[in-house]
Design brief:
238 residues; mainly beta; Porin; 8-stranded antiparallel barrel; 1 helix
Length: 238
């Protein structure tokens, strides 16, 4: 009899814990847009036939708009959120950046550098906690991949020599972000997100070629990082 009496409070506690730890799951899909700033140095090295070497670093900053589609799956338990998402992104932040310098042969050199990102895909986890009703801050951690291209064109001031080279490869980079989600109260399942994302430097894009004189060897590389501010409209399939 005593054992039964002792068991009753324990059973009640377990049932209470199970009731409060109710998990809810749902798929989601959405669209997002925002602005991005991509920043990095473009390095240009010329190895001249007489053994002299020219090294030049050109800071390149590209600013523009981005947009994309996202989809994922998430779980809610009490006020906690755990989710995984996939996003596909388009960028309009590529610009020609001009540069000019004097090389080791005392020749004036001018040109342009272009950095492009295409086929951009990201996979990330989202973790949040609903601190107040209709206000859910969260953090995001993940990996982004894109097919990047670096193009460098340069010519000497007397037009005696020129360089035209490009490098292309798939790059993987870590990304991290913080944001907040706000349900749209009068539209069931819809919510709005505001988010900041940082995309770290990935692998270096490298390009190399012989100059027009067939004697000067040219090498270029870049490894930028990106900051973004995003707004998203998300539909939760509940």
């Amino acid at each position: 009899m005593k054992k039964s009496l002792y068991a009753l409070p324990l059973c009640a506690l377990l049932q209470s814990g199970i009731a409060h730890a109710l998990w809810e799951y749902n798929w989601l899909a959405g669209v997002y847009g925002g602005v991005a700033e991509r920043r990095g140095n473009v390095e240009l090295i010329e190895s001249h036939p007489n053994g002299l070497v020219t090294s030049y670093y050109n800071p390149q900053v590209d600013v523009g708009v981005i947009g994309g589609l996202l989809g994922g799956y998430q779980a809610r338990c009490n006020d906690w959120l755990f989710g995984a998402e996939l996003n596909i992104e388009w960028q309009e932040i590529t610009h020609d950046r001009n540069f000019a310098f004097t090389n080791a042969l005392d020749e004036g050199v001018s040109g342009t550098s272009i950095y492009k990102q295409r086929n951009i895909v990201g996979v990330s986890g989202r973790f949040g906690y609903e601190m107040f009703p209709n206000f859910l801050p969260y953090v995001r951690l993940g990996v982004q991949s894109s097919r990047d291209k670096l193009i460098i064109r340069a010519i000497t001031s007397d037009f005696s020599d020129s360089v035209d080279m490009e490098g292309i490869r798939r790059v993987y980079r870590l990304m991290a972000g913080v944001g907040a989600e706000f349900p749209i109260c009068f539209l069931m399942g819809l919510s709005v997100r505001a988010e900041y994302n940082f995309r770290a430097r990935g692998g270096s894009i490298e390009a190399f070629t012989l100059a027009e004189d067939d004697e000067t060897f040219a090498f270029g590389s870049s490894r930028p990082k990106t900051n973004t501010l995003l707004l998203a409209l998300v539909f939760n399939f509940v």
